[in-house]
Amino acid sequence: MAARRPSNARDQRARVQQERARLHAARQDLHAGSVRRRVRDNTIAVVAGAVIVIGAIVSQVVHAEATAPAPSPSPTISPTDAPSPAPTPVPTATETPAG
Predict the structure, then answer these.
(1) Tens digits of pLDDT across the chain (99 residues)
(2) What's the 3-state SS for the chain?
(3) I need a labelling partner for 37 at 20 to 30 A (CA). Which of 53, 61, 74, 77 fits?
């Protein structure tokens, strides 16, 4: 029968420490990937938003220039030399004695 190797507490601690280090490195890689993804997504969103705003402004300018209405003359009141008629006086109420 083969002799069993006695379980060494030091070996077990070393294995646990290696596993913790492996998990820690995996979490750090996951976090770094998440940060890169968020930065990429934010950059794409800002660029897309800027393109939309610039496109809307350009569209409005082109539309305003292409469909600019021709100025129509507005009616003006020409001054006349004739005097305006005098307003008629408004009758005032007078008190009459009731008798």
Answers:
(1) 455 555 688 899 999 999 999 999 999 999 999 999 999 999 999 999 999 999 999 999 999 888 877 777 777 777 667 666 677 777 676 766 555
(2) CCCCCCCCHHHHHHHHHHHHHHHHHHHHHHHHHHHHHHHHHHHHHHHHHHHHHHHHHHHHHHHHHHCCCCCCCCCCCCCCCCCCCCCCCCCCCCCCCCC
(3) 53
Burial of 5 (0-12, 13-18, 19+ CB in 10 A): exposed
d(CA 93, CA 99): 18
